Every structure is written in structure tokens, then in C-alpha cells.
Amino acid sequence: MTEIYGITGMPLAGKTTVARMMKKKGFEVLDMGDVVRKERDKRDIPAADTGEFVNNQREEKGMDAIAQLSVPYLEQKAESGKVIITGMRGWNEKERFEEELGEQIEIIAVWTSREERRKRREKRQRKEDVEGDGFHERDLREIENGVGKLMALSDHLIKNDELTMEELREKVDEIKD
């Protein structure tokens, strides 16, 4: 049996940071955002068009389209017995992964205020942050894609607003204990 957690949350909530902490506990990490970037780059689509790429995939293949792209990567990582999936956006993605792997996935929702996420965006300066959709537009797209439902139905919630790294680590440890 594979131990699988899916991490969800709005952009810049701290999903990747939580995943890094879980990685230190022996989990393999599948970052769905990395899958999107790899698949986008394979198709020579500019970073500024990442949101459009994702939306087109979902229009063509359904709301679990990014999960479909991610399944081969997940199957490889699942061989380790412990996996964290970061960047899950919708319930359909959870269902797709569970169906493909035959395993249950517990969802960890990471919540951070809009104000704190804006500050993080200014510091991070990832290519799609600078060239892509505006902050508000990206939030709306994430909500339309189902992140709110997945957060509402999550198994665990981490409020990551103004926490120190040590405080966040303690919250992550509570999930595993």
C-alpha cells in the first residue's frame, strides 16, 4: 500500500514548502506545476501562456486533464511507497489519481491570506508570475478549476499565514503523527 497525500491551495500558499518538508520525511514529490511546465515546454508554448495551456487541456480532456498528464510521473514515484502530489486543483484530479493507482489519497489544504500571497509573489518572481495572468485573474482561474471545493473537502488544513518555518514544520508534523 502506498501512502499518498495531495496538497492543494491557492497560488503562493506554501504548497511547495509543505512538500519539501514531507520530502525530508521520505516522501517522493510529484509537483503538478512542474508537469504542466514540462508538458508546456514540450509543445513550445511560452510561459506567459501557461494559464491558457491549462485551460485548453481541461476543455479538450476534462477537468482532470492535468492529472491525466501527471499519471505516468505519479506511477513512477508511487514505487517508493510514499508520495506527495503538489498543486492538485480539483476533486476530479483526486478521483483520477485514486482510480489510476487504486489507492486512497488524503488531501492537505494549505491556506494563506491574499495579502500574504501577494507579498510572496513579489519576492518569488517565477516566470509565469511575471509574464502570466495578473494576481486576481489567476486566483479566479484557480477557483473556477475547483481548488475551493478540494480545499473544502480536504482531510487536513494548514493555515500558513505569518508562520515561521518552524511553526509550519510543526503543523506538517501533526499530520504525520
UniProtKB/TrEMBL annotation:
Biased composition (Basic and acidic residues): 125-138
Annotated region described as Disordered, given as residue ranges: 118-138
InterPro entries tied to this protein: P-loop_NTPase
Origin: domain of life: Archaea
GO molecular function, one term: dephospho-CoA kinase activity
Keyword Kinase annotated: yes
The keyword Kinase belongs to this UniProt entry's keyword annotation: yes
Entries under PANTHER family matching the protein: DEPHOSPHO-COA KINASE, UPF0200 PROTEIN MJ1399
UniProt protein name: Dephospho-CoA kinase
Organism: Candidatus Nanohalococcus occultus
